[in-house]
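name: query_chain
kind: protein
chains: 1
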Amino acid sequence: MRGTVILAAIVAFLAAVFLFACTRRRGACAGAVMRSTSASRSYAVVSDSQIRHATVERFLWEIWNEKPFRFTPRQVARFTRNYSTRLGAGGFATVFRGALPNGLAVAVKVFHAGLGARAEQEQFMAEVGTIGRTHHINLVRLFGFCFDDALRALVYEYMEHGALDAYLLGGRGQDAGVAALRGIAVGVARGMRYLHDECQQKIVHYDIKPGNVLLDGELTPKVADFGLARLVNRADTHVSVSCVRGTPGFAAPEMWMMSGITEKCDVYSFGMLLLEIVGRRRNFDEAAPESQQWFPKLAWAKYEAGEIMELAAAWSGSNGSGGSASAAGDEVQSKEMVERMCKVAFWCVQQPPEARPPMGAVVKMLEGEMEIAPPANPFQHLMAPPVVAAQWTRMTRSASSVPEISIEIA
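structure:
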């Protein structure tokens, strides 16, 4: 009996060893097959198109979790009815009106074919990589994109009132009340505050101007056109740029030196935008009298002379207010709003970047939640004679006034 038990134990042991050996061999075979499959995937044949667009394709894969939709050229053509309604054009792209299959109106930005491969890729990745990651009521929404040999396009939400500059210079902007235009300014400031302070990575726009602010049917402003924008780590104090970015008249002075660049360059641009809202005109108007051609300098002269209410008076007159007490109260309130906007603008366009307020403070000042200190003259360097030139003039005059000394030789 005991021998039988021992024999059974030995048989069971041998069976276990046999099964273990078979399992190891099967696992090794399976691992070899998996490694072979993985290798075949790693070295799979790719198309010429994938090779040409490897950089952008990898970039698009990285932002896949942000969920902008990818459309085909045929879909984009259907959305726009073969590009039948053109909304506008710029240096890099043309914008067409369209509609998604669900009826939602969209604006389709089609990049120009002759832009150049590198410039086109930089513009495309800048827009998708920044606005594709953000969601804010004062930032235009990106629904999707198309990246194909035949077409590079971005599909945005459609904005009924178009760009802010066209609105200000057209009849609709001229008839708008002070409160409505102040609301537009506050909305733009909130969108910029979100870009600078509230995103996971700081986003510097580099091209804030009225033409890049769009208005929906409720006059809600939305910052748009992120083709020059860059993501910046919050630990970085400055950003290096390889070329001048922005639009002359709105780009900050340090942009032209390409050194010491921070998000404060956007603050400067916002100040210039705010002055165009106040003046309801372009900051530079060649057709105006010489003393009034550059509105920022004119606005400062009015402010310094205590006559800035003249700017508000022009606004009040356009609203056609009567002589009632309520109308008089509205006029006083309008003048206070205009003065507040001017003071904020003057702080934003200070020459030294460190003297400009952050966008969070700009929002509070415009909303009346923060007192505004009297701003320094941001255009002092344009009004005073250059110090070096003055010193050179004095040196020349003093040299010419030295009496001549004659020496007689006996």
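note: The chain has two domains: 53-157, 162-387.
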